[in-house]
Amino acid sequence: MKTTTLRGLGRVAAAGLLGALTALPASAASPIKVGLLLPSSGVFAGLGKDQDISFQMALEDFGDEVGGRKIVLVRADTESKPNSGLAAAKKLILRDRADVLVGVISSGVLGAVRDYVDGAKVPLIVTNAGNDDITGEKCSPWILRSSFSNDQIVREMGPWMARAGYKRVFLMAFDYAGGHQLMDSFRKGFVAAGGEIAGEEYPPLGETKDFGPYLAKLKAAEPDAAFVFFAGGPAIKFVKEYAAFGLKDTVKLAGPGWLTSALYVGKQGADAEGTLSILNYVPSIDSAENKGFQERFRAKHGRDASEFGVAAYDAARLVIEALQATGGATDDRQALVAAMHRVQFNGPRGPFRIDPATNNVIQNIYISEVEKIGDTYGAVVKEVRPNVQDAPNGCSKPF
Amino acid sequence: MLLDPQFLVIQVLNGLQLSALLFLLAVGLSVVFGLMNFINLAHGTLYMLGAYFAVAVAGAFDSFWAALVLAPLGVAVVGAVAHVTLFRRLQSAGPMKQVLVTFGLIFVGFDVVRIVWGRLPHTVPTPETLAGSVQILGETYPTYRLFIIGVGLAVLVALHLGLDRTRLGAVVRAGVDDRTMVAALGINVELVFFAVFCLGCWLAGLAGVVAAPVFSVFPGMDMSVLILALIVVVLGGPGSLWGAALGALVIGMADTFGQVMFPAFASVTIYALMAAILLFKPGGLVPVRPSH
Question: I need a surface site. Which of A11, A103, A210, A322 has the fewest CB within 10 A?
Fold first, then answer.
């Protein structure tokens, strides 16, 4: 008798609970958790911050509620280090139960989390790291990329420079996988177009105390141009030293656009003038979408948005529009990824969509030159390569 | 490549510039070691502090010259405080404890600058007057780098005159030779040592300030130069001014030429050179005391 009463009581309680649940407003349904896998410490902390605020701005612009569920952000610090990055990914997936991961600045961290994310079957949208193999040989159905692949960025630059009359080019980048990938992609197109490599140098990553000895070697090789890859602090230093050694006016400086990123081209000032760059975004792109975006960003943060910010902003829009297509459902993750493959929009950098064959973004690539704009400096677009995508690379990725 | 005059001119100047910095750093370390038998592994940390103080002062006053004056003084004060509170107690404690404590200070210094200034690299702008380039033997060379060479030479001359022509210099030289004897003559050796130690810290800070516009300023920038400076001390002969100068010249050139000419052996060149020299001159290039 006693058990029946208890069971009855249980039933009443369950019914009450169910009633309470259905009576609640829709927005109190379980939130959609987006895990930001970005560094807030380490060498890339500044870029992590830039992407974080840009992601938040997209939530304001495109709405942070889909199908009655609110999009909430959970964060974990990758510390810009592979092992910490893996721990951060595990924390976001296991403890925070993130529905989607967004982020990864460093290619080292991306290499470290790739297998874990692939095994956990949680969609990850990469917002910076450009390792070619992540959307190539080691592609995963769960890893999409809103930023770029290294090859996608520089592939067009070799032929362009050869045509522009730069016959002998000197290459320089830090001695690590990313540096070699970018130089190799450039070399391939440049040599095929009839160019000659005048020499190349790969200073050790992180411990280079001084660019002086390398610039001496570059100068002695007497090339027509230099194609170099540096970013952040070293990029600021390199451009300034390049000018101080008198190379700026004799050997044309060129490189992936991070060399003179919007984040610090102002600091480089006149020393950066005339630098040729190739990148998927520059703040001066002349389109209504980009102008509106930059105006909103400037009003909020008092400076131009960078290519790093745009990659995160577009990633947020990709997530939001895919969620709108699934009506806010996240349980069927395959369906969510399929919805991401169908998203298309015109963003700040132009037409944006994910290539279902490689999971890498299809986007315009801009060849620009740094010029004086008003009382500061910035990259001005010379030529656009529309809808550049990764070559089909034999990537097969069944879920 | 080696015989290309253009390459040689620039590279020799680059080598001289690194030598000048290494000299500023090593001379304090060397004299303190020769004089007090005290091994201060945190000497590189003082160099890093000099660079960070330069970031702070140059930022606050918008002037490199203010940083050049104030930052080394700040470093000297830090050194003086460390000497009074820590190092004085360690002088009789034997090398093992000295190494442990000063090695620990490296980590303390690393975390302090990381907490105060963050982990991202900082830059100190090159002063306006030295920002351009000059023509030397038909080559364009950054003026600021020549300034570094000049600072190194000026300090070398000043220290030489100070050691050679002043009473304090005589006491220091005597102290390096025979500390007990000097004390027996009624000279306050402790005070002299303290002054020399602070001067060494000041020089390390100066090296940090001068290096800041050329190298990026980041936590851990001390480690690579500390090792080079220690090699310079051993190579030149501990306690010797000219030994530090000669050692800095050898290592500065070897590092500059080594990293572009034999990149695969860049780190080995210096150590191989050190081993070879010590094999033939165990007391260093300019030994102060006859080897026992």
Answer: A11
